[in-house]
């Protein structure tokens, strides 16, 4: 099981920086993303995480995300809460 | 950029927005409007509101908000476009124009309480021409609401979202109270579809913040489409792959929703439709429990004001709220209505004038060189011909740059007419032709005053009241036709009305009363018409505020004469009158005759010249003391020796030995100027004597000849008038 930490500010730059690590992480096996430090999260990161979860699921792997309050709130507002947090990998 | 410079841009854009709004409203008035037309007016007013807020022009902002709210309903189709509604909107437009002028510091803030009340009433379906005084709750709350919700917008724009979050419940409450006027069915919603495209994630902008704004208005996400999302391997974090659908209660003002996406433009696909949504899965909390992402503070006035032409300044990537792109909204509106125009840029007038001046000097220098070369016997030089032709091209281009379409003068007329209509109770329709006709900036500037007076005259004296017109078998609404065209090197502007024409009996009677003509003088119709240009003449029974003080028409003729032009009248009793102004295309360059008088070389403007001749002894007859008359084909004209008028010496005294230049004058008919000889006839650049020295009677300006000498330009009218007066006095003595 591998853990990746999400930064406090998850903007487009952070998404671009994270993508290669995410790709490796998903390929490696069960991946956990620690989002407890996230204060802001934007579309770039949100869609990246959704894509990551879907890809993991398609490959039969697990991707779990532990959100901060802020992250959960934004996910809820944008209707992406189920896609990011429910099920082993939605 | 300084704040001043940004404000200047804002005011320039206000001018454009006002222009777009006025054309849209004019189209509504003529019944030629569609959804786009009204939308264009709305967007124009909306864009003024945005900037007004950013610069703290509170009165302007409050008024545009009230106006915009009404326009929003008109645009949605909630309010049908009727005659009285259009009249109200035009009144509001005039007040808006005054507000903008006041914001620039060029006028007093207008009284707008009455119009604001009328706008609010109109929204509930009560449109009265005099605004109803029982402006009740809707009007009362509209003002403070406008202020508060605009403050909310202002805070958001300034990037202080934390403060904005503290007030969401207040803002929402006020939004619903504010929009309570809009008739809405319970349970109806706006369905807002937001699809950020590739540009939306560029430059640090963040679509999620826009969604948060929607949430603050009471919106909630009802669907998110992730179908376009590719695999982790192929995904590009900078692209947008999500589409959201939000539902917002329809009591929210549609404008408030659109405002959120003001700066996004094409980067975000946006639709706002009415509909009933599917049952909500999870209502989003009205107030977030967590502070939203706080953008790095950026001075928003940069972002707000620099909306169209300028590219986003480097500072703004830090501001996630406003993507300063070319806002197509403000531009798209004008683009949909008027035909596509060529590209243009704004120029500092000072730079342009300097360029024109230098071109003028170039023309003179080139003429001087040509003269010297020919004087040295070097003729037929090819390079000189090239230079000559290039200089002429530059001159033409320079003059063309200064040329502006006369439409800019005509554009002030609609408002003038609205005011005249309300003060005189007459109805007048305006027809305009030839707005694209171009003339020199210098002429345009000085055209405004005489034109204004002629129009006032046409409405006040020419066009009859609706009752009178109907009784005469005419439509109740009078027609005023303004047109401009180029004709043989001049520009002819005509002001025509279909009113009652000049009452020649009254004019003649008045002239006799004033002692301008003898009781039994026989005058042609044309002569009588021209009497109205006499100083102190006015047949208006009462002196109204508009005209009738008897200082109008003669001033008009004077103004036109100073422009180097002529004014003439054509009038048919019962049918109307046409006033025609013939003006030179430019005041800067003119055609003239170069003449010698004694030791002086002078220029006679060709505009005045009829012909020139050397008389036979028989053609010249003496009349009284020291006066001579020229017999030209049966007509006798006074001979005016130019020598005496300008103080030259050793001029030819005998008309038969010199040249007589027959000129036409405004005030004194024709005369024959006695000069020694005519040297040449060509174009010359006019240099103002006033600017460089002082005004000299008899002299209209100066120019520099090919040999570098200064030549004075004769003021033909003055010289002839002077000579006639002097002769008259001499005779009397």
Structure description:
- The complex is a heterodimer of chains A (90) and B (733).
- Chain A is built from 4 helices and 5 strands; from the N terminus they run ββαββαβαα.
- By secondary structure, chain A is of the alpha/beta class.
- Chain A is globular, with a radius of gyration of 12 Å.
- Chain B is flat.
- The longest helix of chain B has 27 residues, at 3-29.
- In chain B, the strands form 5 sheets. Chain B has a 6-stranded mixed sheet with strand order 14-18-19-17-16-15. A 5-stranded mixed sheet of chain B has the order 6-8-9-11-10. In chain B, strands 20-12-13-22-21 form a 5-stranded mixed sheet.
- Chains A and B meet through helix 1, strand 4, helix 2 and helix 3 of A and helix 9 and strand 2 of B.
Fill in the keyword field for this structure:
heterodimer; A: 90 residues; alpha/beta; three-stranded parallel beta sheet; globular; B: 733 residues; alpha+beta; five-stranded mixed beta sheet
Low-confidence stretches of chain A: none
Task: Give the oligomer, counting copies of the same chain as homo and different chains as hetero.
Answer: heterodimer
The helix-and-strand class of chain A reads alpha/beta
Instruction: Name the largest protein-protein interface in this structure.
Output: A-B, 37 and 37 residues
State Rg of chain A: 12 Å
Helix content of chain B: 40-55%
Provide mean pLDDT of chain A, rounded: 89
Radius of gyration of chain B: 34 Å
Average pLDDT figure of chain B: 76
Instruction: Give the overall form of chain B.
Output: flat
The global form of chain A is globular
Trace the largest sheet of chain B across and list its strands: 14-18-19-17-16-15
Task: Determine the strand fraction of chain B and express it as a percent band.
Answer: 15-25%
């Amino acid at each position: 099981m591998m853990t990746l930490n999400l930064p406090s500010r998850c903007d487009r730059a952070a998404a671009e920086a994270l993508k290669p690590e995410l790709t490796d992480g998903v390929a490696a096996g069960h991946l956990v993303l620690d989002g407890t430090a996230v204060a802001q999260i934007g579309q770039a990161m949100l869609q990246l995480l959704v894509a990551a979860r879907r890809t993991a699921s398609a490959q039969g792997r697990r991707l779990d995300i532990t959100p901060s309050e802020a992250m959960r709130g934004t996910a809820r507002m944008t209707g992406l809460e189920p896609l990011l947090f429910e099920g082993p990998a939605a | 950029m300084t704040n001043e410079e940004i404000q200047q841009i804002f005011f320039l854009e206000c001018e454009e927005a006002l222009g777009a709004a006025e054309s849209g409203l004019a189209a509504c008035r003529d019944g030629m409007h569609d959804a786009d037309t009204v939308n264009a007016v709305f967007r124009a007013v909306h864009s003024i509101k945005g900037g007004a807020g950013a610069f703290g022009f509170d009165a302007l902002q409050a008024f545009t908000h009230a106006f915009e709210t009404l326009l929003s309903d008109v645009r949605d189709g909630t309010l049908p476009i009727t005659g009285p509604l259009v009249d109200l909107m035009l009144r509001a437009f005039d007040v808006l124009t005054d507000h903008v002028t006041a914001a620039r510091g060029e006028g007093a803030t207008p009284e707008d309480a009455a119009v604001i009340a009328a706008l609010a009433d109109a929204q509930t379906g009560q449109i009265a021409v005099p605004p109803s005084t029982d402006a009740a709750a809707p009007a009362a709350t509209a003002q403070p609401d406008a202020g508060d919700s605009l403050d909310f917008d202002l805070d958001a724009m300034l990037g202080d979202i934390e403060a904005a979050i503290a007030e969401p419940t207040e803002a929402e409450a006020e939004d619903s109270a504010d929009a309570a006027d809009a008739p809405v069915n319970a349970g109806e919603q706006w369905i807002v579809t937001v699809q950020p495209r590739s540009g939306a994630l560029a430059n640090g902008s963040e679509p999620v913040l826009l969604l948060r704004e929607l949430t603050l208005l009471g919106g909630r996400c009802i669907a998110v489409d992730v179908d376009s999302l590719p695999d982790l391997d192929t995904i590009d974090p900078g692209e947008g792959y999500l589409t959201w659908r939000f539902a917002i209660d329809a009591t929210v003002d549609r404008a408030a929703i659109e405002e959120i996406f003001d700066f996004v433009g094409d980067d975000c696909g946006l639709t706002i439709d009415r509909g009933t949504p599917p049952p909500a899965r999870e209502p989003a909390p009205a107030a977030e429990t967590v502070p939203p992402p706080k953008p790095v503070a950026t001075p928003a006035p940069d972002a707000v004001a620099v909306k169209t032409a300028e590219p986003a300044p480097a500072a703004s990537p830090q501001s996630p709220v406003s993507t300063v792109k070319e806002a197509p909204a403000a531009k798209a509106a004008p683009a949909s209505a008027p035909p596509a125009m060529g590209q243009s840029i704004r120029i500092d007038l000072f730079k342009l004038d300097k360029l024109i001046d230098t071109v003028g000097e170039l023309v003179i220098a080139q003429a001087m060189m040509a003269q010297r070369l020919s004087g040295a016997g070097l003729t037929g030089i090819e390079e000189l011909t090239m230079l000559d032709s290039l200089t002429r091209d530059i001159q033409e281009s320079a003059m063309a740059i200064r040329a502006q379409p006369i439409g800019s003068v005509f554009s002030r007329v609609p408002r003038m007419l609205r005011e005249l209509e309300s003060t005189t109770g007459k109805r007048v329709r305006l027809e305009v032709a030839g707005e694209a006709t171009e003339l020199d900036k210098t002429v345009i500037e000085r055209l405004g005053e005489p034109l204004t007076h002629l129009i006032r005259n046409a409405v006040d004296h020419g066009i009859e009241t609706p009752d009178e017109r109907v009784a005469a078998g005419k439509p109740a609404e009078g027609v005023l036709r303004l047109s401009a065209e180029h004709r043989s090197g001049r520009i002819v502007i005509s002001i025509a009305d279909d009113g009652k024409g000049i009452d020649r009996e009254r004019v003649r009677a008045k002239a006799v009363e004033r002692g301008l003509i003898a009781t039994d003088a026989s005058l042609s119709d044309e002569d009588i018409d021209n009497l109205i240009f006499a100083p102190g003449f006015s047949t208006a029974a009462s002196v109204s505020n508009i005209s009738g003080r008897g200082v109008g028409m003669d001033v008009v003729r004077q103004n036109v004469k100073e422009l180097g032009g002529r004014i003439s009248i054509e009038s048919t009793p019962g049918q109307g009158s046409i006033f025609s102004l013939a003006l030179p295309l430019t005041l800067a360059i003119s055609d003239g005759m170069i003449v010698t008088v004694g030791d002086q070389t002078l220029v006679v403007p060709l505009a005045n010249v009829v012909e020139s001749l050397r008389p036979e002894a028989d053609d010249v007859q003496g009349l009284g003391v020291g006066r001579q008359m020229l017999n030209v084909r049966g007509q006798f004209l006074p001979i005016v020796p130019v020598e005496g008028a300008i103080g030259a010496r050793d001029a030819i005294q005998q008309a038969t030995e010199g040249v007589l230049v027959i000129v036409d004058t405004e005030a004194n008919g024709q005369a024959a100027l006695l000069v020694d000889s005519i040297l040449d006839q060509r174009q010359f650049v006019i240099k103002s004597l006033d600017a460089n020295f002082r005004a000299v009677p008899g002299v209209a300006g100066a120019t520099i000849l090919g040999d570098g000498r200064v030549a004075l330009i004769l003021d033909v009218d003055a010289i002839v008038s002077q000579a006639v007066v002097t002769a008259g006095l001499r005779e009397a003595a």
